[in-house]
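To the team - zinc ion complex, inputs and output below.
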Amino acid sequence: MSFRHTVKIIGLGALALTLSVEWLDWLLRRLRSRHGHRSPLKEVLFFPTALTCVEHFFKPDTTFASPCPCPLPHGLETSLTGLLRHLLSASVSLDLCIFAFSSQDLSRAVLLLQSRGVAVRVVTDKDYMRISGSQIGTLRNAGICVRHEMGSVYMHHKFAVIDGRRLITGSLNWTLAAIQSNKENILVTEEPDLVLPFTREFQLLWDSNDPARHFPRASPPSGTLAHLRESTPPV
Ligand SMILES: [Zn+2]
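Output:
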């Protein structure tokens, strides 16, 4: 057998193997979709995003007959509307770990979830929660449980877990500058292997920043609203 003939046979063998693997992959995906196994949600959103009206998220009764009077463009899909849609899909819980939070649109969304009975927990940074325009005080005043990093390092995470199964994570701080000016990204997924480490990390941060652990004598009696609001004053 000539060298050229041998190379040809090896090449054809490799091609056949590649096609077999791809065919097997296609077959498995088809079988999974037939049996109702959809692949988990995976979405990437980039910022900055165009400034558009988002009132329809908060006033769903806005119609063609009574349109929103604001001068912003309406009916456009942007990365912010995508983020709001994912956020407002929460029906049971929202665990939010955020370094800087000054976006009023996102704050309104969190308050709306709270008003719907969604259990909201927030972990944030103790310095950045006090900056001008921070929404953390507004959330606390609404009765939302907020804890801040007790250590000397920044609590620099930016992630949210919705209903324990949908993860939003990336570089985006929840600030107007990040949404409208910065180059930022977020990834949204329901891939369990990615969501689970974040739910564990949130619980770890929540427990380790419990004021009762750090200031046991300052803790008010359990069962009171003050107890739920934690011991640090609103900012
Ligand atoms: Zn409008």
